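Why do we bother with a discrete structure alphabet at all? Because it lets us treat a fold like text: something you can write down, compare, and reason about line by line. To make this less abstract, here is a complete entry for Transglycosylase SLT domain-containing protein. Read it the way you would read a sentence in a foreign language you are learning: slowly, and without expecting to understand everything at once.
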Amino acid sequence: MTNRTIRQRLLLSVSSTTLTALLLCVSAQSQASAPISGLANKTPSADFATTRDDRPHFWESLALEPQNAWSQLRNSFAWQDEQLSAQAQARVDKWIAYYRSSPENIATITERATPWLAWITQQINARNLPGEIALIPFIESSFDPSARSHRGAAGLWQFMPGTGDALGLIRNGQYDGRLDVVASTQAALDYIEMQADQWYEGDLSLSLAAYNAGAGRVNRAVRDAQSYGKSGQYWDLQLPDETMHYVPKLHAIATIIADPERYNVILPDIEIAPAFAKVRLRNTLTLREASKRLDVDQSILAELNPGLLNDTMNPRHGQTLLVPNEANPERMAKLALGDRNAQVATANPTTYRVERGDNLSTIAARHNLTQQHIMRLNAIERPDSLQPGQLLTLSDS
């Protein structure tokens, strides 16, 4: 059981206990206010009504935190309660001070994260990884999917060409999978998990160090630390400066995101539903044509699909076109299957936009699916977490 799962169960337990106590309290107050039979010349109902009018309604007094991408991310944090050594905490505190000294930079970077954060957090949760991993693009690329380094790294996750090739990210004159947010995110998470399992017995801090400096260098540093009688954990290692700062930076920015008011940081509003939907194409399509057929601005499609180097989607290179989640579902289905198959697209939609009053059970029944199937496809943890306007994927294809 992960720290996140344990924390969620504890929160649920505390919430249930608190709710029970509050209900008992309300019950006791109601009984105390109830009329006592046998009292002459009393109008208890009027007295009771006055008492109730003066007292806040019970359900209105339960202030629930509005759910958005930031609260979803905070709920998946797993490192915030870790007790670091004084030396390790000092390394984290150094970067907290650095980041909070320029809150405008945090505002700019988190604003740039708006299209991607909710979806990346869903992918992190689906793999049961610590939510802090979703903030790696903050460090790597400042959440710019088109970012390129002078050393040749590219994309949100800053893959070098050789690493991207090894992970199956296609790269040619028309398409660069390192710039494709969906493809590169899956590759990055695969890579982090693979290295943690292969080399570090699941230790994600060591895997992140290897993500930055290479497994060979980190493995040598682990052996060197152990030869001096140390445990060989990340905080014991002597590594290049960039890698020494890598995990402390991630701890620092996560600490600020966990409590932005404390650090005088204002985060942009980001909805809990991903900002984009995925359309799988069968035929080559230009963004100009997609713009016309979807009635979506071409510049928005270009921003969502930075991997398309000449604004053309070729299914031989990449098949998934990202479109704004407010795009018309029927138009998206027609775009995927072609106008000649419009009837099929309408009868068997691959997406569904949640409407007010919908629940997962009725949506599943309407499309002849199981709730579990929809939850798996959309990385939904709780059936009651649907939000009006949320776009659900209904098919693996």
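What the structure line is telling us, in plain words: Residues 1-63, 340-347 have pLDDT under 50 and may be disordered. Residues 3-33 form the longest helix (31 residues).
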